[in-house]
Specification:
CATH topology of the largest domain: Maltoporin, Chain A
Number of strands: 45
Number of domains: 2
Shape: globular
Largest sheet: 22 strands, antiparallel, barrel
CATH class of the largest domain: Mainly Beta
Structural class: mainly beta
Strand content: over 45%
Helix content: under 10%
Distance between the termini: 44 Å
């Protein structure tokens, strides 16, 4: 039986001693007052503004709603509001808890936010979206991946191959998997050009370098890279720090999990130059047997800023080694061998990959109306999947049979590696024109991808005529992706705002050679897409606003689709209707959506031989849903943030092979699309700088296939309800450290044995002259109760 918790008692002892010393540090007992406020550009909230207390090292950044809060002693202060085109000073006499408004209309251009302005929307836009800022991310940032960090947003379902949120993790939004969620980092596409998936395991601890993120559900606004068919997730990396700082963060937890992170910033040198960086190391044994992760990552940034210019050069990346757990476990294996059973036993059955990103961004404010942005990117990726195979045919590996002692040998045990070696180049360029009533953003993005796929033998019991690293298959691939777009936001009057967005996207994909199954592949396809979007927002009052939007999107098939004979593009029409309510204590966002697909590529539930999902064209299908999320401040101590998504997700005319013949199954459930997803965050603040949150998630029953359970009920994932407890306590010492933050995360407090993901496949077989259909299924059990605790020292 797996030993679930394997703490290093020596390290635990040291940690306990350290915590005792930490709590004994003398904190400032003098009465503090809260200075809070809101930063705007005159009309809209201004996120990401830096508020620095002049003459001190204290400062804070405004959140997505422009709000900020800082604790100070009684006295006179000068605030420097910056990270904009021209710093602004605000003088305040603090004698009690005070709220102020800061209007930056006379000096507004948030140069950091320009990096993502072309792919993001504002709070008032007719696009359904959610935002998370750095402060909220930090409270739970103890080593888990980005998908786990956004798990509690509306319509989001996440999963982890290793079971504990570290290593290979996945996300679905409105039932759409990660290959249909467009991801950008500083406006640069992150989705893999061929598979269209996102592999966060290649960038461990990236949360520590994220300033804020926005998740747009549905088609959203035009973005760079692959089309958004379920959502788009865009991330902004660390903003320029006004002041120098250092930070050391460490955490330990269940399954021998350790995370160590070091961050630094020089602050602004001579008011213009900043250099910052991060190094991270994460290790975890995983919940599933042998599903260990050995992860390293880095982030380094150099920036120059003045009144009108921001230039950022940054590099970041990761190096991952993970033991494979992507085939899950069957029902029989769970019953006899336990839910942590891993069928892989070869000691080096690993995924090994290294990925490095290099970005250069130049933002320029030309005058009060015009600003421009140019972004360049180069990504280098290289790695392999190593696998032991027994009793393999010589012919598959181009080996010649041999004769030993008069016996002909044409099979062998061997170890092989399947390689992917790729280069990815991106150029983004856009310009923004703004006046009092209008904002117009237009630009282009071009990317070029080159990838080599090949397999090699590194050991064989009977090597025959082979040499080490002989390639038994190979193919190369090229993909060019270009888009041009224009986005207009126009205030018709004080109540009505019009939004239009037009994009043309042009894709060429070429590949030739042999697949990993030794099947020939020869593709040279061009796609031209026209993606119009339009919406309108009506501000009925200071409390209520309504919006309606329509968006059209297209997507080309990915490499696996081509391998399975699919070359038809998908089409989506997305209709959204929403209501937003906001007063001082309550925010409510409600929207109804209807997403109508033609030739949607849906997950069949099956996997290929490297764990990638296999998809099939479904004809006509739709997703109809209601999403509600709220933020309710019950009192100064209690905050409730519930959300719920109710949906119907159907294939209209699904055709599949049943008992050896194609059968029209009519209306069936879309795979991996629960009809109900509920989340909630209940936050209690019993004392200053102490916060406790109970995070809850309910995911309804899901089908892993699209057949409507016509063969069996093996395709069902049962519903589950999971609760996490997050505790964060910040100490403000009088010396040495600026702050000491203690964090704890108890995942799955109620010890629920749940499964969040799986796979399902069917096959036809003959028996006594008749053809029958059979099926198979595998599941990914998630961790039972487990914990992570950490400390972060800032100085």
């Amino acid at each position: 039986m797996k030993q679930y918790l394997k703490p290093n008692f020596k390290k635990v002892k040291h940690l306990v001693a350290f915590l005792i010393i930490t709590f004994s540090i003398n904190v400032n007992a003098q009465e503090l007052f809260t200075l809070s406020g809101k930063v705007t550009d005159g009309n809209n909230p201004l996120p990401g503004a830096s508020i620095l207390v002049k003459g001190t090292t204290q400062g804070v950044t405004s959140d997505f709603d422009g709000n900020f809060s800082i604790s100070l002693k009684k006295g006179n202060y000068t605030l420097i509001v910056s990270a904009i085109s021209k710093p602004k000073e605000v003088v305040i006499n603090l004698t009690k808890n005070t709220f102020i408004s800061i209007n930056m209309a006379d000096s507004f251009v948030n140069l950091d936010e320009v990096l993502v302005s072309a792919v993001r929307v504002k709070a008032t836009s007719p696009v359904t979206h959610s935002n998370i800022n750095k402060e909220d991310l930090e409270k739970r940032n103890l080593g888990q991946d980005i998908p786990i960090m956004v798990n509690y947003l509306p319509s989001v379902v996440t999963t982890s191959d290793a079971g504990a949120g570290i290593g290979y993790t996945g996300i679905r939004v409105r039932g759409s998997d990660a290959s249909r969620v467009n991801v950008t980092i500083n406006g640069i596409p992150y989705n893999d050009a061929e598979s269209q998936g996102t592999f966060w395991v290649n960038m461990p601890d990236f949360t520590s370098s994220v300033e804020n993120l926005q998740l747009q559900r549905g088609v959203g606004t035009s973005t760079n890279g692959s089309g958004a068919f379920g959502a788009s997730l865009n991330l902004l990396t660390d903003a320029i720090s006004e002041k120098a700082y250092g930070e050391i963060s460490s955490s330990i937890g269940s399954y021998n999990t350790y995370k160590n992170t070091v961050k630094f910033s020089t602050g602004k040198i001579n008011d213009h130059i900043e250099i910052s960086g991060r190094l991270s190391k994460i290790d975890s044994d995983g919940y599933i047997d042998r599903a260990w992760s050995d992860l390293k990552s880095y982030f380094l940034q150099a920036a120059y800023v003045d009144d009108n210019t921001l230039i950022k050069a940054l590099t970041f990346g990761g190096h991952e080694k993970t033991y494979q757990a992507w085939y899950g476990v069957t029902t029989e294996e769970m019953e006899t061998l336990g839910r942590t059973y891993n069928p892989y036993s070869y000691e080096n059955e690993i995924d090994y990959y290294k990925q490095d990103h290099f970005q250069l961004h130049w933002n320029e404010r030309l005058n009060n109306n015009w600003s421009t942005n140019i972004g360049l990117n180069y990504t280098k990726g290289s790695g392999y999947f190593e696998q032991f195979k027994d009793d393999e045919d010589f012919s598959f590996y181009n080996l010649t049979p041999i004769t030993l002692g008069g016996e002909t040998i044409d099979k062998t045990d061997l170890i092989r590696r399947r390689w992917l070696d790729n280069d990815f180049y991106v150029l983004n360029a856009n310009a923004t024109y703004k006046n009092e009533n209008l904002e117009f953003i237009f630009g282009t993005s071009f990317s070029n991808y080159k990838g080599d796929h090949y397999g090699e033998i590194i050991w064989a019991e009977f090597a025959s005529n082979s040499d080490i690293r002989d390639r038994y298959y190979e193919s190369d691939a090229k993909k060019n992706d270009m888009n041009v777009f224009g986005k207009l936001t126009y205030n018709l009057d004080e109540k009505w705002t019009l939004f239009t967005d037009i994009q043309g996207r042009f894709v060429n994909y070429e590949t030739g050679g042999l697949t990993s199954d030794k099947n020939p592949i020869d593709v040279d396809k061009n796609y031209s897409f026209f993606n119009p979007k339009a919406g309108i927002t009506f501000k009925a009052s200071d409390l209520n606003s309504f919006y309606a939007s329509y968006a059209k999107a297209h997507r080309e098939p990915n490499r696996n689709d081509f391998e399975n004979g699919v070359n038809k593009a998908e089409k989506l029409n997305d209709y959204e209707l929403g209501w937003r309510y906001k007063n001082g204590a309550t925010k409510i966002n409600t929207n109804v959506y209807y997403m109508y697909y033609k030739d949607q590529l849906v997950l069949t539930g099956a996997l290929d031989d490297v764990g990638a999902p296999i998809r099939a064209t479904s004809g006509k299908s739709y997703r109809l849903g209601l999403e509600i999320d709220a933020q309710i401040k019950v009192s100064n101590k209690f905050l409730v943030q519930p959300n719920i998504a109710l949906s119907s997700n159907k294939n209209i005319d699904f055709v599949a092979s049943v008992n050896g013949s194609l059968t029209d199954l009519g209306k069936t459930d879309l795979s991996f699309s629960p009809e109900i997803v509920f989340g909630n965050a209940l936050t209690y603040i019993p004392a200053k700088n102490l916060q406790l949150s109970v995070l809850s998630k309910f995911v309804g029953e899901q089908k892993m296939g699209n057949l409507g359970s016509v063969i069996s009920n093996n395709d069902i994932l049962e519903s589950y309800f999971v609760n996490d407890l997050n505790i964060s306590y910040k100490i403000i010492p009088t010396k040495i450290f600026e702050s000491i933050t203690l964090s704890a995360l108890i995942n799955n407090v109620l010890n629920e044995k749940y499964i969040s993901n799986g796979y399902y496949g069917t096959y036809d077989y003959e028996y006594e002259g008749d053809t029958y259909s059979g099926d198979y299924a595998g599941y990914y059990p998630q961790a039972t109760r487990n914990f992570l605790v950490g400390v972060s020292l800032k100085f």
